Every structure is written in structure tokens, then in C-alpha cells.
Amino acid sequence: MRILFLTDNFPPETNAPATRTFEHTRRWVRSGAKVCVVTTAPNSPAGKIFAGYRNRIYQREQLEGIETIRVWTYITANEGFIRRTLDYMSFMVTGFLAGLFVRRVDVIVCTSPQFFTACAAYVLSVFKRRPFVFELRDLWPDSILAVGVMRESGAIRALKRLEYFLYRKAAIIVSVTHSFKQVLSSNGVPADKITVIPNGADLVAFQPGEKPQDLVERHGLSGKFVAAYIGTIGMAHGLSTILEAAEKLRADKRIAFVVVGDGAERSMLQERAASRGLSNVIFVGPVGKEDVKRYWRLCDAGLVLLKDRPVFRHVLPSKMFEAMATARPIVLGVLGESVGVLEAAQAGMVIPPEDADALARTLIVLAAAPDRAIAMGVRGRRYVETEFDRERLAAAMLDALRGVSARCHARS
Q1: C-beta of residue 112 within 8 angstroms of C-beta of residue 136
Q2: In terms of CB atoms within 10 Å, which of 65, 168, 214, 305 comes out highest?
Q3: What is the DSSP annotation of 171-205?
Q4: DSSP secondary structure letters along 11-53
């Protein structure tokens, strides 16, 4: 089985698309598949090339048996629609050209959220006469409208037509949520070509444990109930809610907020917190993969937040599963499918999106009842072991790819 995978995010980047692709592909290699990933020089989300890399036309490396080809792209921070679109389109072109020179391919896979990558995968599938698989991580361009970057327009309608053209051309669609499948099938995409393989957690890498004392001391968190947001600080997440809750809890010395990551809104939020004198909010900045695990253990509750937009009711944020794998309770400020998962796991508390009063009240409740918070975390770990083990999910996707390849070879 020879898999060509196109993605514009890959390690050492630590965002959700990079992590999912890497965790799946390295397991596929261990299962005997040959995998070639075509990607970019690592730069997300700040738009700055990681140390040890350059934005070259073409470079190769091996990551845990995965042949990795990095191509030149127009690089910009994760902000600004026009510049981000130039970034996406440049990878569409250079990723396609690199893919042409990858020999002996059985199936071509691409991953969203942006689907210019899918354009490259589709055209490659035509040239190579091999099926292409669309991994659907986000409804794009709906998410652009949701964060207010653009309004409904002729350009958006053209992108939606392109979106559904690609869905029709894909041999199968691998959706990360059941809600995405419902949206697509209600818009004419055959339900039997959509396979749901959700995000999950590496249960070996993310383990319950005591708080790392060096982090406790570094950030002055001894004796504190720590509520942590760990991930991209983007326009979709509505993290000003954290600042508003912190202001309401200014006098409560038990509770501290830790924000780990980078993104389009980090500088603005950090400046706003400083101007308000919010000493109970600590911005850590981006950290490496190993430190992500340690910061999950540092917290007493994981914050999973998004803006209150209808499109976000279809998502299952991957940080939910990392928090549960680390046996930390979740405060979930998202509606929709994610609420059902959290309630089934009994692993946290749900608040209305962008509701700072509810966030503050919920943290007061959890800080006052640590045994209750710990029990939620234990239930979360047990649930993710049963339902969202990355090992099992990667195997399910590999089986789906093998099925697509077998059908293609049977027809040829």
C-alpha cells in the first residue's frame, strides 16, 4: 500500500491537523504501508520558519519512516484572508508539482480545512489515475464567514461550488465528525461515500500524572487551581472570554488562567490582559510537542472554547481528547456534537459559548470541589480509552484507504 498525503501542516508544527496527520501516517508505516507526505516548511501559526528549516523549492527528510517532501510556499501568519489565500494557493501549485514526481502511488489523500490542497490532490489523481480521498476537518469556506473575515459574496459562492465539486470527485470522504457527514449528505453528497473517523488521543503520549513542579514554580502557580487553554489562539476561539472571566475572578486568589500557544489574536489578547492588570492570566506562548503534554498535566481544568457560531456546532475540538487522556476535566464552551461527547463521558461541564459569567462560575465550582474535578478527569480518561484511541482510529482509516485502493485496482 503506497499512500501520497498532501497537507500544509506537519510536524514539527503542533496544531491539530499536523498532529492528526503525523499520528496516523506513522502508524500506517508501522503497519507496512509506504507513506509520502508533501507539505511545507514548518511555520504555523506565526508565519515564521522553524529553526533548522528554510523555505526552499524542494527538500526531503524522513520522519519515523515517513518520506517527507517540503516545498516552497508563500508564508504568512495565520491572519488576513488575502495573504492566507495566497499561502494556500501557492501550496496547491508547488504541492501538485512535487506530487507529480512521487512514483508508484495507490491512493492520494488530502486534508482540509482549506481545500486548495484538495484541488491539487484531485488533479494529481487525474494525472496518476488513482483515487483521491478527502479528509474533512472543517467546513470551509463556512468557517471564514463564521469568524467574520468575509461576508457572503460571489467569491464565497464560487468557493462553495468548488467545495462540493471536490466532494463529488473524491472516492471517499473521511469526516472527523458525524455532524459534517449530516451537512454534506443533506446537500446531496451520498452518505455511503462518507466515513466518520474522529480525532482522538495518543494514549501512550498523553498520560495522567502529577503537576510538573518546575512549571508550577516557573509560573508561580503553587496552590492555584489552574484553568488552561492549550492550542491555537485564533479568530474562531473567542478567547477574550478568558480575559473577561479573569477580570471577574480578579479577587479570587485560588484560580489562575494559563494560555499556551500562538495565533492571530495572541498579541492583542496579551496586550489587553496587561493593560487591565490581569495578573491571574499567564501567556506562555508556543511550546514543543513534549511540553504540550506537560502543560496538560499542569492544569486542573482544560478550557475548550469557540465563538458562538452555527458552523462550530459541527466540530469536535481535538484538545478535548488530549485533556481527557490526561485525566483533566473539561470546561466546554462549544455547542453541538461536542456536548454529546462530553456528556457521554461525564468528563466536564458545559457553558454557553462566549459567556464569561458562566466560565467564572464554573471554575469557582470546580475549584471548591477538587474531588469532583478529579472524578470527571478519571471518567474522561476511561471514555477516551474506549472511544477515541488514536491507534484504533488510525487503523480504521488505513482500512478505508485499502478498500478504496482495492476497488480502484479491481476496475483497472
Answers
A1: yes
A2: 305
A3: SEEEESSHHHHHHHHHTT--GGGEEE----B-TTT
A4: TT--SHHHHHHHHHHHHHHHTT-EEEEEEE-S-TTTT-PPTT-
> Rounded to two decimals, what is the model's pTM?
0.90
Look at the alpha carbons of 237, 10, 141, 149 in this order and tell me if their dihedral is positive or negative: positive
Non-local CB neighbours of 338 within 8 Å, separated by 6+ positions: 304, 315, 316, 317, 320, 332
Contact predicate 351/319, CB 8 Å: no
Phi-psi category of residue 172: left, alpha or beta, with phi > 0 → left and psi -120 to 50 → alpha: beta
- The whole-angstrom separation of Cα 273 and Cα 62 is 42
Peptide bond into 212 cis (omega under 30): no
Query: d(Cα 344, Cα 352) in Å, to the nearest integer?
Result: 18
Q: What confidence tens digit (pLDDT) does each residue in 14-56 have?
A: 888 999 999 999 999 999 999 999 999 999 887 889 999 999 9
Q: Which domains does the chain have, with CATH numbers?
A: 2-200+389-411 (3.40.50.2000), 213-387 (3.40.50.2000)
Q: Tens digit of pLDDT for each residue in 342-386?
A: 999 999 999 999 999 999 999 999 999 999 999 999 999 999 999
- Of 307, 139, 300, 308, give the one whose Cα is nearest residue 233: 307
Distance, in Å, from the CA atom of 152 to the CA atom of 201, rounded to the nearest integer, reads: 36
Please answer whether residues 265 and 245 qualify as being in contact, where contact means their C-beta atoms are separated by less than 8 angstroms. no
Task: Please state the φ and ψ torsions of residue 325, each to the nearest 5 degrees.
Answer: -60, -30
